[in-house]
Amino acid sequence: MVADLHRQLDEIGVELRLGTALAAEPASAPGTAGEFTAVTADGAELTADIWFGAYGSRIHTDYLDGAVPRNELGQVKVTERLTVQGHETVYALGDITDVAETKMAAMAMRHAEVVAANILAHSKGTEPEAVYAPIPVKVILLPLGPAAGVGQFPNELGAAFQVPLETVVQMKGAGMMLGHFRELFNV
Fold first, then answer.
1. How far apart are CA 145 and CA 125, in angstroms?
2. Most buried one in 79, 125, 143, 170, CB count within 10 A?
3. What is the pLDDT of residues 93-144, one digit of tens each?
4. Looking at the DSSP assignment, which residues form a beta bridge with residue 84?
5. CB of 46 closer than 8 Å to CB of 17
6. Segments making up each domain of the chain, as ranges
7. Which helix (H) or strand (E) element contains residue 168?
8. In this structure, how many other beta carbons lie within 10 angstroms of the beta carbon of residue 97?
9. What is the pTM of this model?
10. How many C-beta neighbours within 10 Å does residue 163 have?
11. Nearest-CA neighbor of 150 among 137, 172, 133, 168?
């Protein structure tokens, strides 16, 4: 998959500069189109037409009190039913959970299905039974515009396989899943 991605980036003229950083932020604002030249940490010049600040992410759970158990990263400790540890009717989902998986919107949507099923069970007076199981491989759909890109899903045995280009285009490339979310939110 990585080789295919590199090939597609080469075809559209994208030059990868892996393992380096800029010596300073460009003079232009991030996300603003317009050619600029920057210098990398190793002194090389780099000319581009747009840049985006990417600084990683941090879990924001400082607002939670001590009654909510968190790990050393600040993630909320949850059970397999996505209840907060020590609380039978309090749920957590998405990036703040300590579920060992890549934090992505698709995983949060899967969490929401489990949480919704368990809350519904509570409301009916039955025991919640929905359990969340992380996907054993990284799932990704990485479009490069509306007609290119790569993707990876797990197969029935849990091993990763590269999905066909048509799947990437159909599921994400053509509209960044906007149709799915319009339907989901009834807009």
1. 48
2. 143
3. 999 999 999 898 889 999 999 999 999 999 999 999 999 999 988 889 999 9
4. 78
5. yes
6. 15-48, 60-134, 140-184
7. helix 165-168
8. 23
9. 0.77
10. 19
11. 168
